[in-house]
Specification:
- With 198 residues, this protein is mostly helical.
- It has eight helices and no strands.
- Helix 1 packs across helix 2 and helix 6 packs antiparallel against helix 7.
Amino acid sequence: MFRAQLQSGIAHVGLALREPEEFAARWNEHQVQYRWWVWISLMTTAILGTMTYGMTMGLSGNVRDVVLKGLACTAGAGLAWGIPLPALYILNSLSGSKLRASSTLLAALVTTSWGGLAMVASIPINWFFTVAIPSPMFILLVNLIVFTGVGVSMIDVFHRVMRRLEPNRETTPIWWLAIVGTIGAELFYFFGLFQFGR
């Protein structure tokens, strides 16, 4: 049973990452009811992506730095994505949205899952430059560029998903990702994630 759930979760995550708009629209239009393990699989993708990328941020230190940066990146990203989530639903509803809370959550979860995968794709970039040019300022610059690129990609995915869920609305609440980015930057600073000196 667990193996079937795992395979189903992985298959659904694959669909969510390939066609995020369609994946969210099928739920919103009651064409499919995703089981709990699909939601957990999407969340796990985001967690694994941020943790593995965070671990590469500790390469200039020792094993303890690698583990702590992986945990700090995951904790910071998770809190940054979770804290403004109620505001996304409440303010979006006040501005005229008719989306159910579950559809709003799914749109956010698909976006964060996609962001986690983008973090995994960025690991070779960070790894290469951390090893090739071990200057703390240069490593910081590389990481800021990666986080900016991933953030811009997430804005695009979230915009496309929300536009598909509510095609008649003139605006989409991409301001939520600006809040996520601001909270994330503060938490990453608080957790010492961008300190690369020994």
